[in-house]
Amino acid sequence: MSRHFLSSLLDPSSLLICTDKEINNISLPENIKKNLIDIDRIKNKELYVKYYGKCNPSIIDSVDLVLVCVSNDILQETLYSLSKFNPRAAIILNHDASLYSKNIRDLCKRWASDCKCELLGPDSFGIQRPSISLNLSPNFPSVRQGRVALISQSRSIVSVIIDWASRDNIGFSLVLFIGKETSLSLSKVIDYLIWDYYTESIVLYLENMDNVREFISALRALARIKPVIVLKAGHHDYDDVVFSAVMRRTGVVRIRYFSQLFSAVRILSYPNKLNGRRIALFSNGIGLSRLAVDMIYASPMLLKSNLSSNTRESIKLLFDKISVIDHCSIIIHSSLDKDLVIKAMNLFLSDDDIDGILVLIAPDYSSDMLSIVEALLNIIPEIKKPIVICLMADIAATSLVKICNRYMISVFQTPESAAYAISVLAEHYYNQQLLLQVQPSIPFYVLPNIDDIKLLLSSIISNGRHNLNLQEIDAMFCAFDMRIKFSTEWKFLPRSNGPIEIHVWRDSIFGPVIQLCGSFINHKNFDNTNPLNMEIPPLNNFLARQLIERSNVFVNKLEIGDNRLSTLQLILVQISEMLIALPDIYSLCLGPFFITDYGVVSDNVAVEIMKHGNDNFVNVAYPHMAIHPYPSDLVKKCYLKDGTVCLVRPIRPEDAEILQNFIRGLSDRSRYMRFISAMRELTPKMLSHYTQIDYQRELALVAIIDKSANNDKYNEDTMIGFVHFLCNEDGLGVEYALVVGDKWQRIGLGNKLMIYMIDAAKKIGFKYMDGFVLSSNRPMLSLLKNLGFIIKTDPEDKSIYRVYFDLSRY
């Protein structure tokens, strides 16, 4: 497999530096620095040219990275003199505060395009990679080594964060400034960090985005495995409200203020994360606890735990006098002892109604506060629930810092900052749950035939109309099984059932947006600034339910009942399906409506369609969507040689059980051929990986014997084949994996699954497909040879073949 396409920039093996002045404040890895060669292959004698690499300078035909720092008047000549080195990446540093005109920027982009190299700059401050001793930013102080990657679209923000981080003892794995005018893709950098061994968490400061689908896909892939913190200005802007809703779906944590940044960085580096949002408090002061509880009430992400009676009674036996506030706070009114505090923590940890613990300690000169904190820090790495500590004591600040550094765990100094920190953990947990929701929006069934509706919308557009009449809207709703009764009877219905409104509009950046809110009949108080009541499709039942809960649309939830909640949930999912399938929809307003035992009763509905249609959507998969929906177009029937009819479709998260049964049912030989190990079943992590798919960068297809389509021969749906591909590090190709059930081999299933995958990879735009096959797996090698794969022995292991298919020739 090739190196990542940004390795030449961020982990170069060879380097060419070309400047018109001496640059001293840089550092290089030893493996590069030891190969320094001064060369003079550029005609301008005033330039300093140094090459770091293993090749003889007289035969250099390619270099990983060129670093350029020259004045504007000789920049063009210098760049084109460097073309002969065929650089894979280039950094153009800011030169004495030079201002780069649009012409200069365009020149640099053209040169990079001609050389087919990644370009950082012009007007770049360079990069810092302390983890590999690489510092190519001479005008910035060196940062300490750490595990946080900082990516910013603002030079000033980079400067401030570097300054603050030095005082807060925070180190970085990468510091990178990407200006608005640079040709370097932010999505590519995010993709690189997925694979970067040295990075454990990421801080992004954003001002704008390149290709939105690529950006969202890369961010979702990164957030699945590493915590991501996003800081973006402008949260009072209307467009920014949608941005917040989108960030929630990517699984990242968005912070509002710069002052919150380092608290978020510290808490997300904790050894354990929340697996829920119910928080308990333990304190030696009522005032501290009340301040923290205020923060919990203010945070939509935090929930108060309900301490069990057993926990409360057991803690009373430990301390002379305690108070219990709001069923979630334990207040100790006596001197603290570290052994008793640890016993109390163990009681909290064993309480199933508690997901996280906030410990607030006020100065108490009769107690050894530092020993208590150290005892808590000592148990944190060994437990499964997070304990966040607040010690309000400046008198021991120096000693406290030393203790925290030793354990690499932060202690907060105000109840507000500690409560905010644990709210970050809660938001991360909540957003991660949303991130994992990728299954089909509606329980799987044959999608409705919507071709007639598409023709109807095209006809309306061609006739110059943009608003649908009630009959046309009703036909569109019926195509998606939406049953809405239009009547004025809603005015006499119980207020606990509504009124409710659903608004849909097309955001210029992120596409369709769905907003759920309580109805304001005159629309003067319509709230379009609350990101909590907004969501972007695709929706499934879980996402729709979460939107309902965040929106607080019902006056009294206890009077609603599960049936009415399910009805609203289904409407949201159906509207989501409609927006996915019909990209011509520009806006939709449903309501005011009420949900009754007889269905949905609405007073009003309006649908507006795009003025010019969407001809540019032909042969492009869902380009109007920020998140790639379930690719229902890949669902197809498959007829095997023995007459069996199976369904081939993209995998869904609810397939985890039948996938596990499929793997368990394979013979030992088949499992070994697929996984090159003696494993008998998939681990939970592997099950999650294979069933929760980002369709922008990977695909998994399953072959299913449908019990209902095979004369009840099977008691349940049965998986008989599985094929998967995942984007390689270089971004150009995919690595495939295929396994067919033992009883279903040699009847054409493997051949059909591979052809389907090749077609899908080609359609997405990948250049090649590769994989690794054991030399003893003759049936697989024969299949791939017949399909046109190139088969070569792996030079590092003669028992394995590397197989390769050129998709550009397919």
UniProtKB/TrEMBL annotation:
Domain N-acetyltransferase: 646-810
Annotated keywords: ATP-binding, Ligase, Nucleotide-binding
Pfam families: Acetyltransf_1, ATP-grasp_5, Succ_CoA_lig
Keyword rRNA processing: no
InterPro entries, per database record: Acyl-CoA_Synth/Transferase, Acyl_CoA_acyltransferase, GNAT_dom, Succ_CoA_lig_flav_dom, Succinyl-CoA_synth-like
Database matches in CDD domains: NAT_SF
Domain of life: Bacteria
PROSITE patterns per UniProt: GNAT
A Gene Ontology molecular function term of the record: ATP binding
Protein name: N-acetyltransferase domain-containing protein
Source organism of the structure: Candidatus Kinetoplastidibacterium blastocrithidiae TCC012E
